[in-house]
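step=predict obj=UDP-N-acetylmuramyl-tripeptide synthetase n=487
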Amino acid sequence: MVISQLLKDVHIKYKSPNVYPNIEIEHITENTGDLLNHTCFFCIRGKFFDGHHLIEQLDHNKTSLIIAEEKLDTEIPYIVVDNTRKALALISRNFNNNPTSKLNMVGVTGTDGKTTTSLIIKHLIDTFTSCAYIGTNGLYYKNKRIPTELTTPKPIHLHKYLTDLIKEQVNYVSMEVSSQGLDYYRAEGIEFNIAVFTNISHEHLDHHKTFDNYLNSKMKLFKQLKEDDVAIINFDQEEIAMKIIQNCKAKVFTYGMNKKADFYISNVSSSMYQTKYDLHTPFGNFYDINLNLFGDFNALNSVAALITCYSLGFDFKKAISALNYINSIEGRMQILDERQPFNVIVDFAHTPNSLDKLLNNISPLKRNKMTVVFGSAGDRDKTKRPIMGQVTSKYADKIILTSEDPKTEEPLDIINSIYSGIDDIGKVEIIPDRKIAIEKALSEADLDDFVVITGKGNESSQQFNGYSVEHNDIHIATTFLKRRYHK
């Protein structure tokens, strides 16, 4: 692709004299180890590295163009832009011939519920046609599952995935859109037809610094929508919902337990394997819903998915029926059953709000004790840690504090921060090794107990200072239970 096509919609501040419109680009990258013939290289400023300092490492025979934020001392043709991350997103889109213009795109954002809502949307749309999912759990479409590094992938990878989906005749994409992904312009240039807002609570303040900044990042998704697009917004946080609506040109549907919402639910009841609720709609119809997932929060996630199907023109009653056949979502309120005489749940809850919702929903089902195994990620919002301890101590009979992903922090420093919020320290045990912590909780469980392992869901590794180790909560718990109860 020649650069005149590549640079569509990119605001250019300066071009070096040797930038010619017929320069051919066959590859784009931000990685100096990924140079091929006719490469366009992006200088990205990161937390620890600055691509502008890597210019001398570039192979002049392979690098045809550089995109930077400042003038460079190099013979390689280069262009200066305001923001190389934004340029990377737009150029990735152009390089792949704007794949989202050929797809029906649904973007889901919020502190909690992104993964579950996005996967329920995929499940429902798959009832009618082919839908892909992109998010924390990876890339899913048809019978394929491909791991991804980030909740919202980097633009180079994202637009390649979307191009591949078109080749595979996938017409719809349900995609998680994180606040950091929005801040880093990973979703820039994507033509979303529908955007869903699940909720917002205490999270990512290490990155955003203030709650208002966090909310403003979420709102970027809705500001992208056009008048003929649809915004689906949880109205239980009414003041926040109104702020989003006021900054959105699209048609809006609201949902929640709030009776002011367009679609609202009532009479929610949950068992371990099913949730029932009544759904009230703006067109006067009333539905009894049976959802094969546990928890009132999943009732709300399913309503967002139903409204998505309605907005896309799919048969509403058929979408409701499909909720009866949804499978449990890996690492999200996942119930492990290996014939043990107690209950084991693995979840991703890692914020005060999601922990509270999780444990509050489990508490009415308790017939004996509840043990909660959890930690908190390093190099992330430290202020939430004691709150998580406080929340957990409201519900748990025993708490095992352990490591999640310490990264550059000392594991015990993180654990002690959580510990400081717990009122009844007599119920706390500290076991930094997460595998040992999980096995200890399972080995001590009695008849009808609940063991709740939360924070990592189905993640496959733990991140330490400069290295990672293989770790999966589901695999560790399942292996232990099989060894003990499959005799």
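step=describe
The CA atoms of residues 124 and 319 lie 6 Å apart.
step=end
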